[in-house]
Amino acid sequence: MGAYILRRLLLVIPTLLGIMIMNFTLVQFVPGGPIEQIIAQIEGQGDVFAGFAGGEGSSPEPQGGDEQYIGARGLPPEFIAELEKEFGFDKPPLERFLGMMGNYLTLDFGQSYFRSISVIDLVLEKMPVSISLGLWSTLIAYLISIPLGIRKAVRDGSSFDTWTSGAIIVAYAIPGFLFAILLLVVFAGGSYWQIFPLRGLTSDNWDSLSLTGKVLDYFWHITLPVLASTIAAFATLTLLTKNSFLDEIKKHYVMTARAKGLSEHKVLYGHVFRNAMLIVIAGFPAVFIGVFFGGSIIIETIFSLDGLGRLGFEAAVARDYPVIFGTLFIFGLMGLVVGIISDLMYVLVDPRIDFEKREG
């Protein structure tokens, strides 16, 4: 197992490098870089994308070289050259990429173009919101979905299975943002009750609360966002667990165990559970990473939470390249490591699995 883990860790390097190369290359062809953002603000346009609205001479032009930026016709070339030097665009793309990756090896992710804060400090500042959404949503989804899926598999075709399947399908069909708005309207002072707060992760008087008060205040604020981000994963995991158990229950070793006189509980949790849970565990990284990185931007916006989802979106809109590439590197590395952890969980659930023999 140690050799397998070592090989997987070594594969992280070329995989992460490939991710960075692809994204860095794509960014070179995207119009509206950070310099054009600054020029648009200086010219009073408010946003660089106003320059792409059409009209003669409004087509995007590449950064660097002797060609002028869109909207920069009235600005002195010396000013543009100074901006290029400040942002590092006076160097060729390959040199910029190699310098960036060299800095990343020393965990130097640079500083945001438009905020006076380093990328790592910015990520750490936003991390509590995303950890709260990702961790609690994933835990709740698994704690509910696995027992419910097992129960549905055992009572397959019963009235319990029918009405719970209907409820699950409805939950899956409801978009997360629509469910979030519904929660706000009903429980956050929209039109009915004001049970939960409307925004934020903590109250304004957080520092003055006792330890117990801080814990209660935290869960009070996070309840609605977590419910909104859990609904889709809950439906998917429940049906996945049910189908996995149904496939295992129909196999011969289950009939043999029952013929030996083992109780149903012993059959389900002593034999079937270990095999059926493999596919569910395999989906854990995707569920966690999806909630943690990708699915939180809408939830964060609706509940006025300042997390990594909004950070990534705002950085992409502002073309804040250090934030974009720094977070991409950090999150890509975390995602690859979580994949390795998923394999270790395979072995934990079923020690019979040996990845080294399978590779051989």
Automatic annotation (TrEMBL):
<protein>
    <submittedName>
        <fullName>Microcin C ABC transporter permease YejB</fullName>
    </submittedName>
</protein>
<dbReference type="InterPro" id="IPR000515">
    <property type="entry name" value="MetI-like"/>
</dbReference>
<feature type="transmembrane region" description="Helical">
    <location>
        <begin position="131"/>
        <end position="150"/>
    </location>
</feature>
<keyword id="KW-1133">Transmembrane helix</keyword>
<feature type="transmembrane region" description="Helical">
    <location>
        <begin position="276"/>
        <end position="303"/>
    </location>
</feature>
<comment type="similarity">
    <text>Belongs to the binding-protein-dependent transport system permease family.</text>
</comment>
<dbReference type="Pfam" id="PF00528">
    <property type="entry name" value="BPD_transp_1"/>
</dbReference>
<keyword id="KW-0813">Transport</keyword>
<feature type="transmembrane region" description="Helical">
    <location>
        <begin position="218"/>
        <end position="241"/>
    </location>
</feature>
<feature type="transmembrane region" description="Helical">
    <location>
        <begin position="9"/>
        <end position="30"/>
    </location>
</feature>
<feature type="transmembrane region" description="Helical">
    <location>
        <begin position="162"/>
        <end position="188"/>
    </location>
</feature>
<keyword id="KW-0812">Transmembrane</keyword>
<keyword id="KW-0472">Membrane</keyword>
<feature type="transmembrane region" description="Helical">
    <location>
        <begin position="323"/>
        <end position="349"/>
    </location>
</feature>
<dbReference type="InterPro" id="IPR035906">
    <property type="entry name" value="MetI-like_sf"/>
</dbReference>
<feature type="domain" description="ABC transmembrane type-1">
    <location>
        <begin position="127"/>
        <end position="346"/>
    </location>
</feature>
<keyword id="KW-1003">Cell membrane</keyword>
